[in-house]
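Replying to the earlier thread about multi-chain prediction with a worked example.

Input:
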Amino acid sequence: MTIEVKNLVKKFGTFAALDGVDLKVDNGELVALLGPSGSGKTTLLRIIAGLDWPDSGEVSFNGADALAQGARERHVGFVFQHYALFRHMTVFENVAFGLRVQPRAVRKDEAAIRARVKELLDLVQLDWLADRYPGQLSGGQRQRIALARALAIEPRILLLDEPFGALDAKVRKELRKWLRSLHHEINVTSIFVTHDQEEALEVANRVVVMDKGRIEQIGSPNDVYDNPATAFVHGFIGESIVLPVDVADGAVRLGDRPLALAVDGLSPGASKLFVRRHDMLVGPPGSGAFEGAVQHVRTFGPVQRAEVALFGGETIEIDAPRDRELRTGDRVGLEPRRYRIFAG
Amino acid sequence: MTMQLTDAVALASPEAKARAHAEAARKNLRTEPPAVRIAIISAAILFLTVFVVLPLVVVFAQAFSKGILAYLAALSEPEALAAIRLTLLVAAISVGLNLVFGLVAAWAIAKFEFRGKTFLITLIDLPFSVSPVISGLVFVLLFGAQGYFGSWLREHDIQILFAVPGIALATTFVTFPFVARALIPLMQEQGTQEEEAAISLGASGLQTFFRVTLPNIKWGVLYGVLLCNARAMGEFGAVSVVSGHIRGETNTMPLLVEILYNEYQFVAAFAIASLLALLALITLIAKTVLERHLDEGHEPRDH
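Result:
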């Protein structure tokens, strides 16, 4: 099932939760919607599910208008951040719910329902919890039951809203791996919302980075990390060094010091230079675009993290390999192996 | 054994002793002297006895003052039976209506955002803040011979005042808040996620209501119905204004109690009153049981 979203706009009062969003998801993809809270990612997910309605724009599944259908007809599996399990039903009945509410004409008989629920509980490896109530389960178990419940209706699309948001770090890591392999197994087109970049980069085939109701970048995990399209993406994904620079007269300046950096395609004016910490290569003085004095060094396993006061103002932290030990007071040249300059 | 314990205390480290002293001091700070405590508790008990227990005892004592046969005879008078029947009928109607209204109102308030919501919540409480006599008068002004709809009703030969419909209306009005009040906080707390989950799993609106919403609020519904019923059966003021006190026809139990009492038929009056008192006691017990279920909230029950 492919999902296509065109020019979606949704306002809550004067706040634009979605401000013209276009997105296409291919059959069998596992896509992450990544962004800070308030970026509109959950609203987008809920509109695709039919739990919210846009002010304008289109949503289509396999080319057919989805907005003409309610949530009930869309056949979309939705997994809620806080699980939303039916608290008065056993785990078994929770998973069976979607099968039991089907119209009589297509409803499976009791034996078939039991078999299907058993199969799903096996899939999420929790068949031994069938007779428990949701309140008796751990967070991770509840989330897996919520997933089994959503899968019971053989959804055309699986949508997960911050699926691991309420879980502790260790359980999250386990469930991430598990979700990836589960997706591999059932191969249903899936979108999940997260504000955790590590989660998005680790689990998804494709990452959609959102901010303030707009899509900032769509790309593979490597893409959004290595080639951020906007200043926001560069700052949001991975840790970056941000330097205020000035582009004028065919040169990039840090303070009053010109930097030996290419200016092709840059618009003049105050700009921001983004570099990853590990993309600053350390060399002897005069060897790179920047020069500075080492203020402080700490070592973390394979890297040494050095605080360097740049000539031209600004102190930055870089990560360097330990093949050449840095010492406080060293003068070093720094060459950004990969960097981006954004206007503003 | 005792010796050993005392030794243990005596041998305890200075820190432990200091801690024990601090503990004792804190305890003393927290509790008043025994005399004050006894005085406060006896004041409370005395008050409850005089104002609650004593009247209850008097009701039953008076009801049975001429023996159990007189009591039973008073209750099987045609007038008494008619009043009991009418009270049950009116309670059934108003509890039924308020169950539906209360559910709808609570649903609207808890699950949707709309303009004027706060106003609606305030409005729901109106019957609690208005004197029941006024509540009854409103219906006289609307449906009485000189009321807004009076002449129209007479032309079409519809009797509302001084008949069952008027009594049921007044009672429904007065008892309206109970169900809604019990449900609003409960439903607000539960939110809409379970309903959303049910719908995305393919459930229809009715299936969602009966399989998800209702099971989640059933204790709240019962609680509201219980209080609503108690008030409906006991309502005096509003009903008194609209009933017309037609003997054997429009007298509910509370009205009949007053009439019999004014006619010096004490045994009969208190016999009926004892039924109302009994209802109160049963309501109280049921309320306690329901509150326990509500407190458990949504904790799962073991098999």
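Chain A touches chain B through 33 residues (CB under 8 Å).

Feel free to reuse this layout for your own posts.
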